[in-house]
């Protein structure tokens, strides 16, 4: 087995990140200078600079020319529940979840027919290049962008039906379960695969009004009817949301 040493700047960044996350370096507090990092970790200025740049790109600190670097203020943490009741039929899960919290849940979306990329085709169990309906969502709570989702549905299932456009027609906004049930393809289970170490891209950050590089949870969700994949989606939840799963017993 070949062991690959962690670059020194990453090891330093990890220590400093730990101090930010555990509150030792509080939001708004002065961040150590290059000289202080050099002295504490006994490294060259270039290494200290790389560590600071890494933390800045992750959205953990702010740096300005001629000004002292500071720990970035954290956006208010919100709780997002992913639970069994939210997957039950009866309309939009997002709207229901927000209503339970006394907030207004809304979203913006854009749908278009595309050829399935290889990874999406594999998840849906269809041939590469087969046509799918891709829908990109931005979800809001009281007008504030909260999280993103991109879904893909095989047109071999939905083309020519009233649900071909997820956000248009008689079942607009009804949720995957209700929409698929309307064409006799009600899902019987879903799977979610979380992906670790995900960071917001520039375009994702712009849509969420957050700095690029902020950490996020990527969930690859798929709805199934027996062994047929009906829809798959990438759900991007920034670190400003605390994700809580509720799982029924029995």
Level-1 CATH class name of the largest domain:
Alpha Beta
Number of domains: 2
What is the H-and-E element order? Answer: HHHEEEHEHEEHHEHEEE
- The CATH topology of the largest domain corresponds to Chorismate lyase
The count of helical stretches stands at 8
Number of distinct beta strands: 10
Major sheet: 6 strands, antiparallel
Poorly predicted runs of 5 or more residues: 84-89
Q: What share of residues is helical?
A: 25-40%
CATH architecture title of the largest domain: 3-Layer(aba) Sandwich
CATH superfamily membership of the largest domain: Chorismate lyase-like
Strand content bin:
25-35%
3D shape: elongated
Task: Round the mean pLDDT to the nearest integer and report it.
Answer: 87
Helix/strand-derived category reads alpha+beta
Overview of the structural elements:
The protein is built from eight helices and ten strands. A six-stranded antiparallel β-sheet has the order 4-5-6-9-8-7. Strands 1-2 form a two-stranded antiparallel ribbon. Helix content is 27%, strand content 33%. The chain has two domains: 8-71, Arc Repressor Mutant, subunit A, CATH 1.10.10; 78-246, 3-Layer(aba) Sandwich (Chorismate lyase), CATH 3.40.1410.10. A hairpin with a 2-residue loop joins strand 5 (131-141) and strand 6 (144-154). Residues 84-89 have low confidence and may be disordered. The protein is of the alpha+beta class. The protein is elongated, with a radius of gyration of 22 Å.
């Amino acid at each position: 087995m070949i062991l690959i040493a962690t670059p020194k700047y990453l090891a330093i960044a990890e220590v400093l990140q730990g101090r930010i996350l555990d509150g030792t370096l509080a939001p708004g507090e002065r961040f150590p200078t290059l000289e202080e990092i050099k002295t504490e970790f006994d490294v060259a200025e270039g290494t200290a600079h790389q560590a600071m740049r890494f933390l800045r790109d992750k959205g953990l600190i702010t740096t300005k020319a001629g000004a002292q670097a500071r720990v970035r203020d954290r956006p208010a943490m919100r709780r997002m529940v992913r639970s069994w009741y939210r997957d039950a039929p009866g309309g939009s899960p997002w709207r229901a979840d927000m209503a339970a919290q006394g907030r207004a849940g809304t979203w913006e979306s854009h749908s278009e027919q595309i050829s399935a990329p290889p990874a999406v085709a594999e998840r849906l169990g269809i041939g590469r290049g087969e046509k799918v309906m891709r829908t990109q969502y931005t979800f809001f709570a009281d007008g504030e962008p909260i999280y993103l989702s991109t879904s893909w549905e095989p047109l071999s299932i939905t083309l020519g039906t009233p649900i071909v456009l997820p956000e248009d027609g008689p079942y607009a906004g009804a949720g995957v379960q209700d929409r698929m049930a309307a064409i006799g393809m009600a899902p019987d289970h879903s799977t979610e695969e979380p992906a670790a170490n995900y960071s917001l891209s520039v375009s994702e950050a712009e849509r969420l009004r957050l700095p690029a590089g902020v950490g996020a949870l990527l969930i690859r969700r798929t709805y199934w009817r027996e062994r047929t994949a009906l829809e798959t989606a990438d759900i991007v939840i920034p670190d400003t949301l605390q994700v809580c799963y509720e799982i029924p017993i029995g």
